[in-house]
Fold this protein.
Amino acid sequence: MKKQVGIEALAIAVPRRYVDIEDLARARGVDPAKFTAGLGAKEMAVADPGEDSVSLAATAAHRLIQRNGVDPSRVGMLVVGTETGVDHSKAVASHVQGLLKLPRTMRTFDTQHACYGGTAGLMAATEWIASGAAAGRSAIVVCSDIARYGLNTAGEPTQGGGAVALLVSEQPDLLALDIGLNGVCSMDVYDFWRPLGRREAVVDGHYSISCYLDALSGAYRGWRERALAHEVVRWGDSLPGEQLARILYHVPFCKMARKAHTQLRLCDLEDAPGGQDSTPAAREEAAKSQASYEAQVASSLGLNARIGNVYTASMYLALAGLLHGEGAALAGKRVGLLSYGSGCVAEFYSGVVGEGAARRMAQADVEEVLAKRERVSMEEYERIMRLASDAPEPLTPAPGEFRLAEIRDHRRIYAAG
Ligand code: HMG
C-alpha cells in the first residue's frame, strides 16, 4: 500500500491584541463597508514588538507538542516558513529549537518565498517522509509572520499576524496529501516585496491581485492535468474543480478567496470540452456562482476574517478554520489548496481529510486561543505600530507563550510564560 503522508495535527498562535476593522475604517474616513463587504474583514491582529515571528512560532509549536503529546525525540525536522524573520543568518527554527529545548538530532532551517514559504517547508517535510529518508520520524513545520504595511496605507486593513504549527507524519489525521499531483506556476514579478532593512512591505496592490490570479491559473491547470490522468477528477456532469469538497486559498484578505475561486472556475469553464462554445461573458458570469463559493469556500474563512493576513500562515489558518468547523463532516473527502507567494509562485495541491480531523482540531482549541485576545482602540493600535521593533514592552507572557524580552549585544532574549 502507498505510504500516507500529511498533516497529523496543528496549533495556532495569535497576537494578544486586535482592532475592530470598522474602527479602523472610521479612523481613516472610509466607509466601513469597504473593509467589511469590500475586503471581507472583521478584525485585524495587532502584533507588538514582543510578538515577533520567533515568539509566535515558538508559542504555536509549544502548543502543538503539548496538546498532542508529541514525543520530540521522534521529530527529525523543524522548518519555519517566514518572510518576516529576525536575522539575515540565524534561523527562526534555531530560536524555536532552543526555546522549546528540542533535541539536537533534528534538521532545522527556515524557508522563504513570501507567503509561499510555509508550503515550501510543508512539501520538503512531506517528500522527506514519503521518500523513506525520515525513517519513521515526523516533522514540524511552522508558518509564522507579521503582515505590516504601515499606517494610512491602502494595505493597512490587510495587515495581521500569527503562526500555525503543523505536525507532518505518516499518520495524517487532518489531511493526507495527494503526493505527485501538485501543480506549480512561478514568474519573476514585482508585485509585493520588502527590501532589506524595511519593516513595511512595498506593494503594487492591484497588480498583486492579477499576479495571484495568473499564477493560480497555471498551478491549478497543472494539478488538474495530473488529477485527470490519475482519475482523481474527470470531465463530466460537474467541472473538475467542483469535484473537490472544499477549496482553500491563500487569504491576504477574505475577498481574495472569492476572486480566486471565480478564476479557478473560469479555468474549468474555458477548458471544458465544448467550453469555448459559450461566450466569454457567459463563462465569466457562470464562474462567479455564489452557490459554488458558498458551498466550496466560504466556510473556511472564519479565522482569516478575525486575524487578517498572516502571510505564510494564511492558507493554513483557513485549513484550521475549515476543519475546526467541519472536520467530522469532511472526513474522507478531498479538498484542494492553493498557496501563493508574491514574487511569485503558486502551488495547487490536494489531500483527503482524515477520520481523526475533528478529534485533532478539538486539541487545537482555536476558539479559546482567539477568546483570550483583547480589543484595542485606534489610539492604542497606533501607539503599538509606532513602537521600535527592537524595544519590546515589558509584558509577562501568558503560560505556554513566549515573548521577545530584549535585544542585548545583538542577541535576542525571549521570556517564557
Ligand atoms: P484599495 O485600492 O484601497 O481598495 O486597496 P479597492 O478600491 O480595490 O476596493 C477594495 C474592494 O472594496 C473592491 O472590491 C471595491 O469595489 C470594494 P472588488 O471590486 O475588488 O471586488 N469597495 C466597497 N465595497 C462596499 N462598500 C463600499 C466600497 N468601496 C470599495 N463603500 C488592496 C485594496 C487589496 C489593493 C489593498 O488593500 C492592498 O494593497 N493590500 C495589500 C496587497 C494584497 O493583499 N494583495 C493580494 C494579492 S498578493 C498576495 O496575496 C501576496 C501577499 O499575501 C504577500 C506575500 O505573498 O508575501 C500580499
Q: What stands out?
A: The first strand starts at residue 6 and ends at 13.
